Structure formats: structure tokens, C-alpha cells
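Hi R.,

As promised on Friday, here is the backbone we talked about, encoded as C-alpha cells. Could you run it through your design pipeline when you get a chance and send me back a sequence?
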């Protein structure tokens, strides 16, 4: 079976949906950011602080290319991974790509809920207006995200419901390709 690849902005639900899909399909879940952290021996925040975004993106390209070579995985990619043309090509050729989408306000509230301090703290959101920055980044990434095989709005759905939509789309695609 081909890979199921989940892309989209941070806090769009990739990790949760990936875990549910793994349970439902029996396919292993691989989180690209976790592989990057393991290889670098430090957090993504620390990679950004110590080495800069360019170094992080170079490591991300290497990891994405490796992950997409194998089949039968669920791959959860970082929020900016699909923007990179090399990553996007590897993902589109390496499986079925689902872009999970959410409004800026939804993303902001999810990030705040995930953070003990109540702030939406991520390296790319540092600054006085994280909600505004989310909107800017979503606008910058919209064209790339639009190239995914499928897009699923996650604003009004639970991760379980989103996982069901992914499976339904895969089954519909398989039946039309038979």
C-alpha cells in the first residue's frame, strides 16, 4: 500500500489524525519532526535557535526524501515541509497527500491549549501578534497546500471524523482507479 501523507499548518491535526489512522489501518505512523529531533539530538526550537531555519529545512528535506521512499506508512510532515518544492515532489510521488486545514483562529486556540503557558509559542510564531503571523504564514503557504491530492477542513471535525474522511477518500480513489 502507498503511503498516507499528512501535511498542513501546525495544529491542523496531523499528529492526532495520524495516530488514529495508524490504529485503524495497522500502518506505522512516522512523524517527520520526531525523526528530525532524533537525528539532530535537540528540539526543533533548539535547531532554529542554534542553527537557523535553513539548517532545519535542509535536514527536513533529507528526512522527507528517505521517508517517502518506503511504502505502507502514515507520514506526518511538519507545517512548512510541503512548501519546499523538493519535499512536495517527494511526497506527491511517495503516496497520497492529505492537507489538513484550519482557520487561523482555530490554529491559535489549539496552540494555546497545547501550551502550559497559554501562549501560542512556536519558533515561527514568536513575536507580539501570533494570530496575525498565523494568517500571514497560511496565506504564504496556500498555493503549496493547494497542490495536495486532497484537502480536509478540520475546524468543525474531531480527529476521529477527519480520519474517517481520509479513509473514505482513499477508498473512493481506489475504487475509481480499479
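Update: got your reply. Pasting your designed sequence below so it's all in one thread:
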Amino acid at each position: 500500500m502507498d503511503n498516507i501523507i499528512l501535511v498542513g499548518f501546525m495544529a491542523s491535526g496531523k499528529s492526532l489524525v495520524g495516530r488514529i489512522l495508524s490504529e485503524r489501518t495497522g500502518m506505522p505512523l512516522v512523524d517527520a519532526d520526531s525523526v528530525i529531533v532524533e537525528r539532530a539530538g535537540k528540539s526543533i526550537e533548539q535547531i532554529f535557535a542554534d542553527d537557523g531555519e535553513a539548517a532545519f529545512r535542509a535536514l527536513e528535506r533529507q528526512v522527507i526524501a528517505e521517508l517517502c521512499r518506503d511504502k505502507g506508512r502514515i507520514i506526518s510532515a511538519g507545517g512548512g515541509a510541503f512548501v519546499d518544492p523538493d519535499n512536495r515532489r517527494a511526497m506527491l510521488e511517495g503516496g497520497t497527500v492529505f492537507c489538513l486545514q484550519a482557520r487561523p483562529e482555530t490554529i491559535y486556540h489549539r496552540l494555546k491549549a497545547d501550551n502550559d503557558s497559554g501562549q501560542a509559542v512556536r519558533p515561527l510564531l514568536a513575536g507580539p501578534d501570533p494570530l496575525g503571523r498565523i494568517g500571514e504564514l497560511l496565506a504564504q503557504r496556500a498555493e503549496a497546500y493547494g497542490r495536495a491530492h486532497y484537502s480536509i477542513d478540520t475546524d468543525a471535525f474531531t480527529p476521529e471524523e477527519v480520519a474517517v474522511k481520509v479513509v473514505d477518500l482513499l477508498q473512493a480513489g481506489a475504487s475509481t482507479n480499479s
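One thing I noticed while checking it: The helical segments are 14-25, 32-40, 44-51, 53-69, 85-94, 104-114, 130-145, 159-176.

Thanks again,
M.
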